[in-house]
C-alpha cells in the first residue's frame, strides 16, 4: 500500500466522494432491501456534500492514495434541543472506506482526526447512525467506543 494522505476535502473532489458514497449505499442496500435511493440520489448527495464543505460547523476529511480518494468522513457540530445537555454534540453523517482499503486502520485514523476536530469545536460527545443490518459497521463503531443510544424504528405504510 502506498502512503495515504488524510486532509480536508476540496470542492473539486465531490464527484469522487459521491462515487464512494454510492458504493457504500449499494452495500447497505444489499444488507437491507428497505434502503431505497431515488434515481437522482447522487446529485442530491453531491449538493449535501458541497454545502457541508462550505459550512464552518462541518468537516469533510478525505483519504487520498495515488491521487485518488479511497475514503472520507463527513461530520458536523450540531445544536442539541434546548431541553437536553450538552448544548452541542458532534454528528458523523458518513464515513466511507473503499473495500480495497478496509482492515488497514484507515477508518480508525479518519475517526481519530474527526474526533480531534470535534473536540476543538467544543464538542464532548458524538452521535451517528448505523443500519441494523450493517454488522461490520456496528463492530467498527463498537470497537471505537460507541454504544447503542437510541433505536430508530421503521414502519412501512
List the helices and strands and how they pair.
Blueprint (H helix, E strand, L loop, with lengths): L3 E5 L5 H18 L9 H13 L4 E8 L2 E12 L8 E10 L8 H15 L5 E3 L6 H9 L14
Parallel strand pairs: 4-5
Antiparallel strand pairs: 1-2, 2-3, 3-4
Q: Could you name the key traits of this structure?
A:
globular, 5-stranded mixed sheet, Aminopeptidase, alpha+beta, single chain, 157 residues
Architecture overview:
With 157 residues, this protein is of the alpha+beta class. The protein has one domain: Gcn5-related N-acetyltransferase (GNAT) (Aminopeptidase), CATH 3.40.630.30. Helices cover 35% and strands 24% of the residues. The protein has 4 helices and 5 strands, in the order E-H-H-E-E-E-H-E-H. The chain has a 5-stranded mixed beta sheet with strand order 1-2-3-4-5, with helices on both faces. The longest helix is centred in the first third of the chain and has 18 residues, at 14-31. The radius of gyration is 16 Å and the shape is globular. 22% of the residues are buried.
Amino acid at each position: 500500500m502506498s502512503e495515504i494522505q488524510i486532509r480536508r476535502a476540496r470542492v473539486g473532489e465531490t464527484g469522487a466522494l459521491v462515487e464512494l458514497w454510492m458504493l457504500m449505499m449499494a452495500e447497505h442496500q444489499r444488507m437491507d432491501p428497505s434502503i431505497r435511493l431515488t434515481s437522482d440520489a447522487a446529485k442530491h448527495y453531491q449538493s449535501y456534500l458541497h454545502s457541508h464543505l462550505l459550512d464552518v460547523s462541518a468537516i469533510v476529511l478525505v483519504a487520498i492514495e495515488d491521487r485518488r480518494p479511497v475514503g472520507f468522513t463527513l461530520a458536523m457540530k450540531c445544536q442539541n434541543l434546548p431541553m437536553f445537555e450538552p448544548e452541542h454534540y458532534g454528528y458523523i453523517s458518513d464515513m466511507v472506506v473503499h473495500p480495497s482499503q478496509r482492515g488497514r486502520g484507515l477508518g480508525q485514523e479518519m475517526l481519530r482526526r474527526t474526533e480531534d476536530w470535534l473536540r476543538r469545536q467544543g464538542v464532548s460527545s458524538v452521535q451517528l447512525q448505523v443500519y441494523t443490518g450493517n454488522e461490520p459497521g456496528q463492530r467498527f463503531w463498537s470497537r471505537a467506543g460507541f454504544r447503542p443510544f437510541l433505536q430508530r424504528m421503521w414502519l412501512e405504510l
